[in-house]
Specification:
The chain has four helices and 26 strands. It is mainly β. Helix 2 links the parallel strand 1 and strand 2.
Length: 340
């Protein structure tokens, strides 16, 4: 290749983010899961158990095409796992766990990253089909589902480890589908399906090019909520940031409701279907103090993006102000490029 061509290709790669085809970290070992017996293990949890505690080398758990009905937990001591399927329409992990309805997300605060005993905090958290407590986790081309079809919280994915990334994954549920609990997380071209608080937590996360699909019944008089975020307070960064992508589906939806007084959610250049209610945002309780809540929309499009009817306490950011949130450095200090 001529030097000029090398310069052009190099410039193109620098403009690409993230480097989807040029994994910078090497995978030391691959474990294959096949429920039909054609791999090392038949279940995903068995493969996770085979990763040694204190692991520091990337291990790929390749899950062959199929629907795996099981509850999976990656404990905090089993980091550096890459979970890879054959596509989110071909490989899924599913279960129908659910909370008992005695709690609501806002009644179960998490005080820190090491508050791991979720059983004692809320049955919502322990309803998750797939739970990631470990730092340094990557998932690609796989779906996580909670198939419970009732009126209780039913989590498909809970992640409270730091430095987790999801590429071309899908998350299916209805109430509390994706628990983005604590830590820095990156979601790229993912699908999230739900009706009530279907992305919730205290996370510091960027959702880039993701599709958020409401499955709220069209006949429902009560709109759902796409997000329920609780900010950390004390000056620490915590926010759910949606960059590009779209909101679509059925029923009506608020963009989010404030889990606590520091809730922060930003929608940037997101295409919004007409299912978004004119008010846009909601309080958790009618008397809630929202003076420190940061709910914002910048550069959005579509029939649901009109801001004329929005709540008066929505924050109005300029493009310059929103850059702090949408810049990848909001979550990344180099860890994304050190993943496979």
């Amino acid at each position: 290749m001529r030097p000029f061509c090398l310069l052009v290709v190099g410039a193109f790669l620098l403009l690409r983010w993230p480097p989807l085809s040029l994994g910078w970290a090497q995978v030391a070992r691959t474990i294959t899961v096949d429920q039909n017996g054609g791999g090392d293990y038949r279940t995903v949890q068995s493969a996770v158990n085979a990763v040694p505690d204190g692991n520091r080398q990337w291990v790929r758990i390749y899950v062959k095409q199929g629907s795996y009905r099981e509850k999976v937990t990656i404990p905090s001591q089993k980091g550096f796992i890459l979970l890879q399927g054959d596509g989110s329409f071909k490989t899924d992990i599913n279960l129908d766990g659910h909370g008992d309805g005695t709690d609501a997300p806002g009644m179960a605060p998490i005080t820190g990253r090491h508050d791991r005993n979720l059983t004692n905090i809320s049955p919502t958290y322990t309803s998750a089909t797939f739970t990631v407590h470990a730092d340094n986790f990557v998932a690609r081309n796989i779906a996580f589902k909670n198939t419970f079809n009732g009126g209780y919280p039913a989590v498909a994915m809970l992640v409270d480890g730091d430095k987790s990334a999801f590429y071309d994954c899908a998350f299916h549920g209805f109430q509390d589908t994706l628990c983005d609990l604590i830590g820095r997380h990156y979601f790229h071209h993912c699908l999230v399906v739900g009706g009530v608080d279907f992305i919730f937590g205290y996370g510091q996360s960027i959702y880039e090019g993701c599709t958020l699909v409401s499955n709220m019944p069209a006949s429902s008089q009560q709109p759902g909520w796409v997000t329920a975020h609780g900010g950390a307070g004390g000056g620490r960064n915590a926010a759910l940031v949606f960059k590009g992508g779209m909101i679509t589906g059925s029923g009506r939806q608020y963009l989010g409701r404030a889990w606590n007084e520091h809730a922060t959610v930003v929608f940037y250049q997101v295409n919004m279907a007409g299912i978004v209610v004119p008010q846009g945002w909601d309080k958790w309780t009618s008397g809630q103090d929202v003076s420190q809540v940061t709910f914002a929309e910048v550069g959005c499009s579509g029939p649901g993006s009109g801001t004329a009817g929005r709540v008066t306490w929505e924050k109005h950011m300029s493009y310059a102000e929103v850059q702090r949130f949408v810049d990848i450095r909001f979550i990344d200090d180099g860890w994304l490029s050190n993943q496979p």
